[in-house]
Amino acid sequence: MRSRLYPVFKYTVIALWACFVAGPFLWAMTTSFKNANAVQGGPTYIPWVQYKPTLTGWHNIFGGAGGIDVVQPFVNSAVITIAASAISLALGSLAAYALSRYRFKLGFIKNSDIVFFFVSQRIMPPVVLVIPFFYLLQWGGLLDSIPGLVIVTVALLLPIAVWVMVDFFNGIPGRSTRWRCWTAAPRSRPSCGRSCRTPCPG
Length: 202
Known about the structure:
InterPro entries: BP-dep_ABC_trans_perm, MetI-like_sf. It is a multi-pass membrane protein. It is found in: Cell membrane. It comes from Streptomyces avermitilis. Its main location: membrane. The structure is a single chain. Helix 5 packs antiparallel against helix 7. The chain has two domains: 2-61, no CATH class; 71-197, Orthogonal Bundle (MetI-like fold). The longest helix is centred in the first third of the chain and has 31 residues, at 2-32. The model has no long low-confidence stretch (mean pLDDT 81). By secondary structure, the chain is mainly α. The protein has nine helices and no strands. It starts with a helix and ends in a 5-residue tail after the last helix. It has helices at residues 2-32, 36-40, 56-61, 71-101, 111-120, 130-140, 146-170, 178-184, 189-197.
């Protein structure tokens, strides 16, 4: 009896959880096919019964009079993400290679302390840097521009890139010859991927 009730209980829980997760997406989808009066008139969910579907909202977004341009923001985000990821990986790899292959010591500061310094930058809330970045970009004439956003994103992403790439270089034997670098190159793809995923939501 217990073995028969378990599948029923399991699939009931899964179905309820699926409804809970899919509910907001279904609500957003149905709302996109309503006009302004239907949206403001209260919750309705069944098309052609509780409300009449319309494509007015979609038409306004994708080229209607007074519509919202959604293509350019996506293009800007893609350009900023690709540029910031490439620059961060290039600079981060240089710093990470030096920290992995050479030993630095200035008083009590060693390589591990330098790596921790990079990682500790992520502990600081990004909002603390809003005012300094604002004045810096204003001084450079880069406010509200793609290069300005790339600079800010690189500054926020670089500590993660250094930290991830240091771990990658530490996994490569120190006496690897030039041809062994070609063997180790494919192993860097997971590290590069982790570094590149960070700026994407921005």
